Amino acid sequence: GGGGSSGPANDVCAAATEISCNSVVTGSTTTATDDTICTSSAANIVGKGVWYKIVQPANSKVTFSTCQGSNYDTRLSAFTSCTSCGVTNDDSCGTKSLVAMEGAASARTLYVLVSGFGTNTGNFQLDVKCEAPPVVNNGPNDKCSAAKKVACNTKVTGSTSALTSTTQYCSTIAPSAGLWYSVDVPAGQKLEVSTCNPGTSFDTRLSVGSSCSAQCEQTNDDFTGCGTRSKITTSVVTTAATTKYVLVHGYNGAKGNVELEFKCST
Fold this sequence. Notes:
- By secondary structure, the chain is mainly beta.
- Helix content is 0%, strand content 44%.
- A hairpin with an 8-residue loop joins strand 19 and strand 20.
């Protein structure tokens, strides 16, 4: 907003409320005053809004969304300073909004304005998500005994191009070279592992099991909806946390770059 005694505390950019990564913020624009920003650009932003700021970690993408829990036609705008033009979105999800700011080489402060389309005001829910940069991995985890431990809800990039050590993890699949990972899945949750990502460049296969000594429990080549890439969702871990071993390899000896995502959920 433009400020004034009747507006909320964060009515102007200079008084932006600090928020953190992976948080949910609720608020209202009903008493906010007008903002007029970037009037000379195509992203002309005029409306009643409130301001927040966040430290964006280095190389991390930050996404702001009002798609859930907001009760009016919102607009979101994000900036790198209180005086610079930024990015803006009106209707990304119905009449609600979503904007994303790609990561920079160094950490920086971002400013986000929650406003409305035209004269719309109301109550909003602002979801803030920071996506950590992928961990780059090209080995030497080419054997199950050397599986690289990764955490739930992370991405890993790597390459199988130079790998030569082969393993037959599934009795019905010929031995092939690949990268091994282990994930501790909490009790009551399941693991989804996927190569259906832009950084995957070859025809992948995924195989998942609960030990290095036994055969795999699940394997997938071409998952429906993502071409020649792969995805597996395990059953829910019912008692104590369980370690799952994941082998990412290729169909019929295919090799290349891979972007692998691990998600744990109930």
